[in-house]
Amino acid sequence: MLPAPPFSHGDFVAVLSRCATLAHLKQLHGRSVVTARAASQSTTFQLLRFASLRLSCLPYARRLFDSTPHPNVFLYSAMLSAYAAASPAQAYGHDALALFLRMLRRGRPAPNQFVYPLVLRAACAIGVQLVRSIHSHACKSGFHAYDVIRTSLLDGYSRYGMMLDARKLFDGLTERNVISWTALVSGYARAGKIGDAIVLFDRMPERDVAAWNAMITGCTQNGLFVEAVGICSRMVDEGFQLNGTTVSCVLSACGHLGMLKIGKVVHGYAWRSCVGFGSSVVNGLIDMYGKCGNLKEARWMFDEFSDRSLTTWNSLINCLALHGHSKSAIAVFDEMRDEGIEPDVVTFVGLLNACTHGGFVDEGLTYFKLMCDELRIEPEIEHYGCIVDLLGRAGRFEDAMNVINDMKVQPDEVIWGSLLNACRTHRQLELAEFSVRKLLQLNPNNANYVVMLANLYSEGGSWEEVTKIRKLMKEDIMGKKLPGCSWIEVDRKTHRFYSGDDAHPESEDIYDTLDELAASMEM
DNA sequence: ATAGGGTTAG
């Protein structure tokens, strides 16, 4: 056999950078083996990183790792990074942790300061108890002295809302930088302490794009959408360029507000700047246009975009469901499955909502079955809400109650509310009263429920029942309710509506139109 | 050669 031609390190790096598929990488790997270049762990390191980070091929990365007789600390780190980058993170947390334990058990290679942040990310995906144990391990082994590791710990605690622990770590840092500040700010925001987050953000000595993004997301997580847009504009005023993350966060805020105008401004910004139309930006645009009612534009964006992720599909399905285009939502779902995209929990929220809105009882139940039994996705409260609604509509109250009783989570207002609604259409007085009591336990301030029950009884009621309602009303729940509010932007003007108000100048026409719509819906 | 903060869908 002829000896393999020489294959320098430079050749290797050049070829690696041009690999686009796993097949390319395998060829390069093979050539590295033949030329003995693969004997060097730094070569395996490069191949492993490329397989995991650029090609997202975790199994191949792991095979590279396993084929190395005595992996050094670089290979361990690379493998831990691969697990950290894989999604969903929880799925690989245990694998990552097992690698760390193997290092400790064998005593070599000894973990270094680069290993701890990676292990902490895995620990964080599994549970806060593990964050605690890694923390104490870091203290004992002396690695706690590293600011980067303390920042990882800070982030770990803050993700579980443990802001006192996070704060302690922050205060103990030798040097604070924009990263540790940002970790703290987003921790407070996630924990719902948005006021603290804003104060800290304003006190930050230095901010970068990620810091601004953290503050913007912090606002949207707390429902402060107007503030999120405001911070974004402050960011621009202070001379920062938005990136894809900023754009998607702000578009999400615009969607929640129905601010089509500002959404279009952001769209224009993305067009002019070098942000680019990556999947996060496009997903944000689909969501924003869809939520603002411009489904045509949303659909157009979706059709024009080829690099669709799961979120892209979910955004479109959700928007269609939101606007009552149930059949289209289902069609998009089928199309998605035909393309081999695996749906997730969020997909089914949109899909089941579509079935509920469209009154597709059998389809909804079939999809719910598909989700639970075939795809093994654990349903969340939203899914149960849809199913209870569907069964209720069909008058299948026994089934509905069985679903509620079998739920692994506590039923919420949506669940009992949709059951109550169904009881009303099917004249199930007893179950209706039961639901109302449950609703009042959950939210004693909402007088609507009592009014609904009163209406029910008054339609076919007896004196005995009237007394019941009087009693419920006495439980001092009337008059405390905050009115529901919605708004819409038309020609640069925002029109705001409270439930039942007639303050709008065109109020009469609006109610007439609503009546017409209600009538045509009943047909 | 490797590490810490910011994504969007309900």
Describe the structure.
InterPro entries: E_motif (IPR046848), PPR_At4g14850-like_plant (IPR046960), PPR_rpt (IPR002885), TPR-like_helical_dom_sf (IPR011990). This is Pentatricopeptide repeat-containing protein. PPR repeats lie at residues 177-211, 309-343. With 523 residues, the protein is mainly alpha-helical. Among the domains are: 1-126; 487-522, no CATH class. The protein is 71% helix and 2% strand. It has 29 helices and two strands. It has helices spanning 9-17, 22-34, 41-54, 58-66, 73-85, 89-106, 115-126, 128-141, 147-159, 163-172, 178-190, 194-203, 209-221, 225-237, 244-257, 260-272, 279-291, 295-304, 310-322, 326-338, 345-358, 361-374, 381-393, 397-406, 413-425, 429-442, 448-460, 463-474, 507-522, and strands spanning 485-490, 493-498. The chain has a two-stranded antiparallel sheet. A hairpin with a 2-residue loop joins β1 (485-490) and β2. α5 (73-85) runs antiparallel to α6, α16 (260-272) packs antiparallel against α17 and α21 packs antiparallel against α22. It is globular and about 95 Å long. Mean pLDDT is 89; it is low at 476-485. It binds one DNA strand of 10 nucleotides through α3, α5, α7, α9 and α11.
Set out the fold topology.
Elements: H1 9-17, H2 22-34, H3 41-54, H4 58-66, H5 73-85, H6 89-106, H7 115-126, H8 128-141, H9 147-159, H10 163-172, H11 178-190, H12 194-203, H13 209-221, H14 225-237, H15 244-257, H16 260-272, H17 279-291, H18 295-304, H19 310-322, H20 326-338, H21 345-358, H22 361-374, H23 381-393, H24 397-406, H25 413-425, H26 429-442, H27 448-460, H28 463-474, E1 485-490, E2 493-498, H29 507-522
Antiparallel strand pairs: 1-2
The structure holds one DNA strand of 10 nucleotides.
